[in-house]
Amino acid sequence: MATVFFREVFGNELAPRVMSGIIALSIFGNVVVMTFTASRVKQEIAKEGILPFSLFFASSSTTPWAHLRRRFFPSSTNHQDEQSPSAALFLHWLFSMVMIAATSSTIPDTAYVVLVSLYAYAVVVLIGLFVSGGLLYLRFFSPERHVWAAKSGFKPWGGPTAAVIYTLVCAFLLCAGFIPPRSDSPFAKANTGVAWWIVPTAGLGSGVLGWVYYAGFRYVYPPLLRDGKVLVVDREALIVREHGEYVQALEHVDASWERRSGPGSNEGSEEGMGRISVVMK
To answer: Does the pLDDT of residue 276 top 60, yes or no?
Structure first.
């Protein structure tokens, strides 16, 4: 649409080509941001110890730029090298390859429609519903709702109105995906090349599989394979001051399975424990 608009406004073929380059640059920026964000999110999930080989995926490595800066631009100050979640980035790459391979048997147009629609349904709609619904739960139904209100100094205009509207919109889109389109609809199989139910089923199924994995890890794995022990995650963050701001330079994470003992202990059904400490420098 943007390229057609530029062609009609400027009346030549150069304008739409320039616009295509701008769009490509914008898409590249979005891919870089999503890759950075997804890798960090996967790393934080791994730090909670709930992924296979969690300590490996929670690790970080020094970036090539940090190596070059230390080699050619040494600093006299105690500067922390920049770290990158390389292992989590590999995990993100692996799942990206799985999704591309799953649609490789279709033509590029169909694969593009499926992947974009799946992202919109699973990430934008499904996660958006959980986030906005979680905010409403903390606001109205959580036993600690007054504590949350006291901690937050931000009071948005209109109160929870925006969260209510967003939750209702996401819930509508979540259900609307399972309504069959008409035969002449742009979303019919004749136009998209894929059955209408595949995207919402795959998107919702990914969330269901996540709950199944968590339930197995939480209720089945400890009593059967860990003799009722609970997962204990120790996290120690090193906070330094750079340019007048406090920055987390690194974080040491360790996970182990330990047996809980003492009054009220209930092996096999206790929540995992976590210990967090902060070192300021």
So the answer is: yes
DSSP string spanning 172-214? HHHHHTTSPPPTTSTTSHHHHSS-TTHHHHHHHHHHHHHHHHH
How many other C-beta atoms lie within 10 A of the C-beta of residue 33?
10
253 secondary structure, DSSP code? E
CA distance 141 to 135: 10
pLDDT attached to residue 268? 39
Rounded Cα–Cα distance for residues 86 and 61 (Å) = 6
The whole-number average pLDDT for the span 87-96 is: 93
Q: In this structure, are residues 254 and 46 in contact, taking their beta carbons and an 8 Å threshold?
A: no
**Burial (0-12, 13-18, 19+ Cβ within 10 Å), 58:** buried
76 burial type by CB count under 10 A (0-12 exposed, 13-18 middle, 19+ buried): exposed
DSSP lists the bridge partners of residue 239 as 248, 280
Residue 279 pLDDT more than 70? no
| pLDDT single digits (tens) 162-177 | 999 999 999 999 999 9
Query: What does the alpha-carbon distance between residue 116 and residue 110 come to, in Å, rounded to a whole number?
Result: 10
Tokens of 44: 């934080």
SS3 content of the chain, % helix, strand, coil (to 5): 55, 15, 30
Residues 193 and 215: their CA atoms lie apart, in Å, by 36
Q: Is the dihedral of CA 164, 165, 167, 172 positive or negative?
A: positive
